[in-house]
Amino acid sequence: MWIWWEEAGGALRSLLGSPRYSLPAVLSIALGIGASTAVFAVLSALVLRPLPFPEEERLVQIGTEREGGESTPGLVAPPFIEDFRALDGVFESIAAWRPLAGHLTGTELAHEFSLMATSLDYFDALAGAPELGRLYSARGPAPDGEDVAVIRHAFWLEAFGGAQVTGKSFVFNGEPKTIIGILPDEQAMPVWADVWIPQRRSVTTEGRYNPGIRAVGRLAPGVNAASAQAKLRAVAQSSQFRDPRGALLGGMLTPLREVLLGARRGSLGLLLSAVLTFLLLACANLAALIGTRASLRQREISVRGALGASRWALLRQAVLEAALLVLVGGALGVALGTVFIERARQQYQDLLANAPPRLDGRVLGAFIALLAVTTLVGTIAPALLTRRVQPMDALRGEGRSSGGRRARRVRELLVALQVAASVTLLIQAGLLVRSVRALLAVDPGFRVEGTVIAQVVAPTIRREPGPEGFFRRREDALRTVRRLYDRLQGLPGARAVCLSTELPFDDMTETHAFEGDTGRPARMIIHHWVSPGCLQTLGIPLLSGRDFTTEESFDQLSAIANRAFAREVLGVEDATGHRFRELPPPDDTGPPPRWYEIIGMVADVMETDLGEQVQPALYVPFFINPTRQGSDSSIGFDVSVQAAGEPEPLLGSLADAIRDTIPDVAVKDVKYARERVVDSLHERTALEGVLTALGISALVLAAIGLFGVTAYAVSERSAEIGIRRALGASRGDVLRMILMETGLVLVLGVALGLLVSWLARGFLQRFLFHVSALDPLTYAAVSIGTFGLGLLAALAPARAAAAVSPSRALAGR
Question: Cis ω on the peptide bond leading into residue 50 (within 30° of 0)?
Answer without folding.
Answer: no
